[in-house]
């Protein structure tokens, strides 16, 4: 027996996790060489430096594919993107998809065309591009009780 609810009651939960060892860290640290005055203290990273954030900062959610809603399908997508200094994801590629190709299409549209923004990486107090940031997007049907 299939129990269908109106589309409005189905919500998308979006979660993402940053890859802890970003391949971009060596590129983001340009200009740090030559800043040491010989003390061990100056070689330590600036405590304000950080990699790009894992969660969207503006609560934008991807569209849940209609066909997946109708079939009560859930899924997830793993993508890799550059996070620009303004927090926008760019140059995204899908690494893995579970649940159906429609989830991959929705995730790519979300990452490339929506107003979603992530906390950008910061080096020496300046927002910088972080390359190869891994994002996980989960598509989960809920009963509207959140």
From TrEMBL:
> Which spans does this entry mark as compositional bias, Polar residues?
17-40
Q: Which InterPro entries match?
A: TonB-dependent_transducer (IPR051045), TonB_C (IPR037682)
Looking at the record, the residues that make up the TonB C-terminal domain are 49-146
- Per the record, the domain of life is Bacteria
Enumerate the residue ranges of region (Disordered): 1-75
The residues forming a coiled coil are none
Q: Name one GO biological process term.
A: transmembrane transport
**Compositional bias per record (Basic residues), positions renumbered to this chain:** 1-16
Q: Which residues cross the membrane?
A: none
Kindly give the PANTHER family that the UniProt entry links to this protein. PROTEIN TONB-RELATED
Descriptive protein name = TonB C-terminal domain-containing protein
Q: What is the lineage of its organism?
A: Bacteria, Pseudomonadati, Pseudomonadota, Alphaproteobacteria, Acetobacterales
